[in-house]
Amino acid sequence: MGAWSFLTQTMRSLWLLLIPCLSLSLAPFVQTEKGLEFPRYDGNDRVIDINDKNYKKAMKKYSILCLLYHKPIPDGKELQKQHQMTEMVLELAAQVMEEKEIGFGMVDSHEDVKVAKKLGLVEEGSVYVFKGDRVIEFDGLLSADTLVEFLLDLLEEPVEVIGNTLELRAFDRMEEDIRLIGYFKNDESEYYHEFKEAAEQFQPYIRFFATFEKSVAKELTLKMNEVDFYEPFMEEPVTVPDRPNSEEEIVAFVTEHRRPTLRKLRAEDMFETWEIQLTSQGLIKHRRTFLLRCSDGYEFLELLKEVARDNTHHPGLSIIWIDPDDFPLLIPYWEKTFHVDLFKPQIGVVNVTDADSIWLEIDEQDLPTAQELEDWIEDVLSGKVNTEDDDDDNDDDDEDDDDKDDKSDKKL
Amino acid sequence: MGAWSFLTQTMRSLWLLLIPCLSLSLAPFVQTEKGLEFPRYDGNDRVIDINDKNYKKAMKKYSILCLLYHKPIPDGKELQKQHQMTEMVLELAAQVMEEKEIGFGMVDSHEDVKVAKKLGLVEEGSVYVFKGDRVIEFDGLLSADTLVEFLLDLLEEPVEVIGNTLELRAFDRMEEDIRLIGYFKNDESEYYHEFKEAAEQFQPYIRFFATFEKSVAKELTLKMNEVDFYEPFMEEPVTVPDRPNSEEEIVAFVTEHRRPTLRKLRAEDMFETWEIQLTSQGLIKHRRTFLLRCSDGYEFLELLKEVARDNTHHPGLSIIWIDPDDFPLLIPYWEKTFHVDLFKPQIGVVNVTDADSIWLEIDEQDLPTAQELEDWIEDVLSGKVNTEDDDDDNDDDDEDDDDKDDKSDKKL
């Protein structure tokens, strides 16, 4: 099971072979026929309005319970619609996950103060996932897709077992993920048990793998009861010291090393990714943000990996790679906020507290070299490159635009 | 511009370098700070209720107008909620695309019969996109993400210009897409103009590229005014005969050859992909569906490519590759509908009219070989492998489940 959850997580694929035969159906395929109907909200209420009376029952009923901790439902029509949209995201997720015995509820931060306190809900707008005696804060984008993917990952085994070299090759291709792998005698091993306990602390954000196969361990140069930690996009893993390791040792090591130099932003943990930036320095930090739109993602990723590997020791350096195609809704927003044409390559520094930004001039035919990039990153780190724009202007712009467009819509 | 739209479509990437400095902010990053706020519906109505009086005004006002042609708003509370959800998808898309002067509206198939007839809206539930004198039916998944991505693609140049070998390498990596590329003297060329006119007929579903560089044309072995057609996952392109080609010749060729042997299912054109299956045989066909869940997507894709290349001449063969991670909402649905454990590798044939399915036993450690797969595909094509299950049972199961869960929810 461990093995298959691993395989599905990493390499699910479906193949559909379409063979023509006679039929009378004229309607488009997916909308009308069976086997590929896309789930659409059926309008049934599944999300529970959690209160003092029913929360214990809900906890018992479901193997996993997801609670949205939200501000009181506002009076304004606009804000009510906004709240409704959030509610419907939960309803669709609840409908889709019904078969999996996963429950969904909403906790009002004013009406249900007691329950919130009992359950330890603190951050308004967050989804808290209760699984056994664990509480996991969902730090991803609040969309049905993202929430369901997160919960499916949470349903899988905390440790994914690699049984052969085919699976090992798949492990090698996961360079975007933070991951650990350990070699143990078998699934009875007490050290494997400790490793598994540690894995549960980080599931599904950080991926834990194990092998019981000598041949696999050999390829990974893992000794018995040894655990390696892989930072995203780095070639060599770091070994957790003083094997065999206890749950506490592994948890402590991961907590210390989890902040990567180069990381890809994913919808399922985008907020968590940022929070790492907040806490990794031990202090709450303000971050200046370097933003780059490059004419060739592929070549440029190779370049960035180089720079990241050379500078992975630098405690201040943390690069987040964003593929805008993963966030289409943000593309117009970025173009507007940064006043740049994303149809041209852009390199810039953005101050994330006020969206001030500064942009480098690039020759469209000629990308920066690794050295040029490294020099510039140095200038950003040293503060030589920084932003000066006035953020209030941008805000005003936005509001003006909205007002204007509202009126003109109403005119129709 | 053509070049950059090409680059952004294929290789957009953003890089964020986070540098710790002092700050007092304690709140999570993306939700509170500037530059990465995720667009959330602001509750303002932007979607226009289109009627006899206002549709001309709307057409004039926007460079692109998207109209959802929908059934009358139903009475039942459940169905109204369902309709509301669809409406909110449009509202969020309208909010995000406001800056781009793209308008959104809804046309009621009963109240607005006249308008619908004037505009040629026929299929309830479809979104019709009006751009200049073109009407494009949006055949993707009706989610804000997917619709916005589709519209952004539609805003780009119909032909993307490849100016150097760096861009050519990116073109080479696009094996998943149906694409054409032509070599022309310059952007004044009448044949380039014909090519561009043809491109507009298929934008954004099929991608058109052009080069004016001798060096690029040489690498592609393109003669002057020659156009090559690339089928997804095939190594060699097919050349459009009798160059130089008119718009009509290119349109006819693409229409005839667009149905691929192997294609990846994408949210932005999933319905269109199926409709190709419906029409490619000249007749409306009923399709039996072959579905495979394989333990290693990567190795297996290589295998499938082989089989597809060997059998690309077979008119009856059309394989759709689905990466379930692209459709998380469908994973529980597939598990339920096909009664299979997607945590194990599965190979089966599915009858798409009633979701009957039949599954092969596979040894978990041992994938089928290309030959075994080819033999089996032959058996499916010949009808030796087919489905016999009774679909009514499945339906009943589903309904029962829903009822059960509804009741138990209400109990709370």
What's the quick description here?
The structure is a homodimer of 412-residue chains. Chain A is α/β, with parallel strands linked by helices.
Describe the structure.
The structure is a homodimer of 412-residue chains. Chain A has 15 helices and 16 strands. Chain A has helices at residues 2-11, 29-32, 55-61, 77-96, 113-119, 144-155, 165-172, 190-202, 214-219, 247-257, 270-279, 297-310, 330-338, 370-382, 391-411, and strands at 14-22, 48-49, 64-70, 102-108, 126-131, 134-138, 159-161, 179-183, 207-211, 227-230, 238-239, 262-264, 285-293, 318-322, 346-351, 356-360. In chain A, the strands form 4 sheets. In chain A, strands 2-4-3-5-6 form a 5-stranded mixed beta sheet, with helices on both faces. Chain A has a 5-stranded mixed beta sheet with strand order 7-9-8-10-11. A 3-stranded antiparallel beta sheet of chain A has the order 13-15-16. Chain A has 412 residues and is α/β, with parallel strands linked by helices. Chain A folds into 3 domains: 48-154, Glutaredoxin (3-Layer(aba) Sandwich); 157-257, Glutaredoxin, CATH 3.40.30; 262-382, 3-Layer(aba) Sandwich (Glutaredoxin). At the A-B interface, helix 1, strand 1, helix 2, helix 3 and helix 4 of A face helix 1, strand 1, helix 2, helix 3 and helix 4 of B.
